[in-house]
């Protein structure tokens, strides 16, 4: 088995992250991001779960995750995975969408998978430019032409509600976790907030959100920790400020959710600043 490689770049011209994972077998648990993810499989096969629906994805397939779409994946053929993706924050996506369409809105990808997509080569070429840190003109041109095709073919205009389809009690729990993520959170507290018993809360929350309350809390913590690391905060301090009990606990969750160590993620912003 060859040595796995995990490479990440932050492109200041485009204001997006680019990941490349080569030769990995890591399972990614059910989680979500606050940003869009556009990725594709270079080699390998995976079982993908997105918003409680299952898919089998393989070489040449593109995956799309909207902000807050819960998703998980794992290998199913005992073979290595080569994967590339772009992470795009909502404010960047809104700006690009307005430039392309003339309308001010956040698009929503209607399906998480495009099998053997015609846009896979365009995405691959753009990703290589970002990884190679090529000059901005050619790269930005490729980015806009790709996004034009993806927006037109795979998205719809979306009326923005933060937690669409969530009942009032579950929304209260989400809000509480998003505000108090750095504190000790107990299931009793969440049950009191939702006016449900603990078992009913767990079942209702997981059914509606597609993710358990504990996974929701840990995902919020990881997303907040990423923001601190981007500012150059040390991993230990980021761990303490986002509610993790220690740096080891933090590192384990960060690798599990993001595929990188906190230090690796922080370094891409430090290196870009130098």
Main beta-sheet annotation: 6 strands, antiparallel
Query: How many distinct domains?
Result: 2
List the strand order in the largest sheet.
Answer: 1-2-9-4-7-11
Number of separate strands: 12
**What's the shape?**
globular
What is the straight-line distance between the termini?
36 Å
Q: Give helix % range.
A: 40-55%
CATH fold node name of the largest domain:
Jelly Rolls
Low-confidence spans: none
What would you say the CATH architecture of the largest domain is? Answer: Sandwich
Integer average pLDDT: 91
Question: Could you tell me the radius of gyration in angstroms?
Answer: 19 Å
Name the helix and strand elements from N-terminus to C-terminus, one letter apiece: EEEEEEEEEHEEHHEHHHHHHH
Class inferred from helices and paired strands: alpha+beta
Q: Which percent range describes the beta-strand content?
A: 15-25%
How many H/I helices? 10
- CATH class of the largest domain equals Mainly Beta
């Amino acid at each position: 088995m060859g040595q796995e490689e995990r490479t990440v770049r932050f492109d200041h011209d485009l204001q997006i992250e680019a990941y490349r994972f080569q030769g990995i077998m890591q399972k990614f648990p059910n989680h979500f991001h606050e940003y869009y993810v556009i990725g594709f499989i270079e080699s390998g096969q995976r079982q993908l779960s997105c918003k409680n629906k299952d898919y089998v994805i393989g070489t040449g397939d593109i995956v799309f995750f909207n902000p807050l779409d819960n998703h998980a994946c794992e290998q199913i053929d005992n073979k290595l995975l080569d994967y590339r993706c772009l992470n795009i924050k909502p404010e960047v996506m809104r700006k690009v969408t307005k430039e392309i369409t003339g309308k001010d809105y956040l698009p929503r990808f209607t399906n998480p998978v495009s099998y053997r997509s015609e846009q896979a080569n365009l995405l691959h070429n753009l990703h290589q430019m970002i990884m190679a840190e090529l000059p901005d003109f050619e790269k930005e041109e490729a980015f806009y032409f790709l996004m034009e095709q993806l927006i037109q073919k795979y998205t719809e205009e979306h009326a923005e509600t933060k937690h669409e389809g969530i009942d009032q009690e579950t929304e209260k729990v989400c809000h509480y976790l998003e505000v108090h993520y750095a504190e000790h959170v107990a299931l009793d507290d969440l049950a009191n907030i939702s006016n449900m018993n603990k078992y009913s809360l767990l079942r209702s929350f997981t059914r509606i959100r597609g993710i358990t309350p504990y996974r929701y809390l840990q995902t919020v913590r990881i997303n907040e920790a990423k923001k601190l690391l981007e500012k150059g905060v040390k991993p230990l301090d980021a761990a303490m400020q986002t509610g993790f009990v220690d740096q080891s606990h933090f590192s384990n969750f960060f690798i599990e959710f993001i595929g990188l160590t906190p230090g690796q993620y922080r370094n891409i912003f430090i290196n870009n600043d130098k």
